[in-house]
From TrEMBL:
It holds the Pfam family Epimerase. InterPro entries: Epimerase_deHydtase, NAD(P)-bd_dom_sf, NAD(P)-dependent_oxidoreduct. Residues 5-236 form the NAD-dependent epimerase/dehydratase domain. This is NAD-dependent epimerase/dehydratase domain-containing protein. It comes from the Eukaryota. CDD domains: AR_FR_like_1_SDR_e.
Length: 339
């Protein structure tokens, strides 16, 4: 059945692709964007058409409530995804406060049938020595980043809301990669750009880290499947192939017929570079690509199983090889890398 949906974070990497897909499937989309948002990831809104824009901020309850008017579904994808910000309190106000406002708006609106909340693998915590599934709850003893902490707190709130009967389905993507806006959320594209422009000469660490890599279009399909058939209150990992960044660079070298890196840059060196980048960022105001918290993340494993989503949502993540075979020519076509 066609729905009227509100998408927060619509101007972002994931949100933009989600809007396109929802529109393609005949849903009517209200994109919640900030007055300052770059709207290049969205189709132009059409008069009386299937896409309309609502301006606001997830921390501004009134604007969110107004945007919910007449909607049946909320996709809540808005978040600050940076691993480091000069003012860390913003992670809580946006990532936790934003979800609280969505839950409050659900209660006040009365028309919302389902909330699909974009959480993150970070909300479950690291998985050193094992592969985790949806039963893992973040132990909340330590966090590599303030972002991780905010997503873990928000996850707890989402699960509490579910237990109180709020029709929410939290979904947990892995590291999202693939074509789309090259925002801070598109971390793999940014690292490949660094690598192919000679600014990242070696592997990051020694390949002992493992992450779960999710292609953006698989994640979008998983979100829409969660709307159509996700069970209320159930968590779904929308993860993909578990692999190290070393493996990613190796596959990239094979696909592009270029040389693999011949050495690993020790994490300590990357951390020192991260501290310098943070210092530089405090002077210039430009956010760093690598910061010490990123390195703390790289010191752990983040490997997950998406079996539940495969069974219940027909989630069908592609392999890294397939995904990268698309990403590399795409970055090349944009002139962002050469090979
Ligand atoms: N990227 C990943 O690897 C990854 C992995 C797991 C989970 N996730 C989750 O996926 C979601 C989307 O991430 P993404 O990668 O698409 O990030 P992104 O490209 O940085 O997009 C973030 C979006 O959130 C919006 N936003 C930020 N603060 C806001 C505020 N105060 N009010 C309203 N909107 C606000 C941004 O708006 P502006 O355009 O105005 O900045 C943007 O549209 C997030 O919830 C993130 O936690 C991402």
């Amino acid at each position: 059945m066609k729905k009227k949906v509100l998408v927060t974070g619509a101007s972002g990497y994931l949100g933009g692709r989600l809007c396109y897909s929802l529109l393609k499937q005949g849903h009517s989309v209200r994109a919640f964007v900030r007055p300052t948002s770059d709207l290049s990831s969205l189709p132009p809104p059409s008069n009386g058409g299937a896409l309309d824009l609502a301006y606001g901020d997830v921390t501004d309850y009134r604007s969110l409530l107004d945007a919910c008017s007449g909607c049946q579904v909320i996709f809540h994808a808005a978040a600050l995804v940076e691993p480091w910000l000069p003012d860390p309190s913003r992670f809580v106000s946006v990532n936790v406060g934003g979800l609280k406002n969505v839950l409050q708006a659900y209660k006040e609106t009365g028309t919302i049938e389902k909330i699909i909340y974009t959480s993150s693998f970070f909300a479950l915590g690291s998985t050193d020595g094992h592969v985790a599934d949806e039963s893992q709850i973040h132990p909340a003893k330590s966090f590599c980043t303030e972002y991780e902490k905010s997503k873990a707190i928000a996850d707890k709130i989402a699960l509490e809301a579910a237990s109180e009967g709020v029709p929410i389905v939290p979904v947990y993507p892995g590291v999202i990669y693939g074509p789309g806006k090259v925002t801070v959320g598109n971390v793999l594209a940014r690292l490949i750009i660094e690598r192919f422009n000679g600014r990242l000469p070696g592997y990051i660490g020694y390949g002992s880290d493992k992450f779960s890599f999710s292609h953006v279009d698989d994640v979008v399909d998983g979100h829409i499947a969660a709307m159509n058939k996700g069970r209320l209150g159930e968590r779904y990992l929308l993860t993909g192939e578990n692999a190290s960044f070393m493996h990613v660079f190796d596959i990239a070298a094979i696909i592009t017929e270029t040389k693999k890196p011949s050495f690993g840059i020790p994490l300590l060196v990357i951390e020192a570079y991260g501290w310098l980048s943070v210092l530089f960022s405090r002077i210039t105001g430009k956010l760093p690509l690598i910061s010490p918290p990123t390195v703390y993340v790289l010191g752990h494993q983040w490997a997950y199983s998406c079996e539940k989503a495969k069974v219940e949502l027909d989630y069908n993540p592609r392999s890294l090889k397939e995904g990268l075979a698309e990403v590399l020519p795409w970055l090349k076509s944009l002139g962002l890398i050469k090979y």
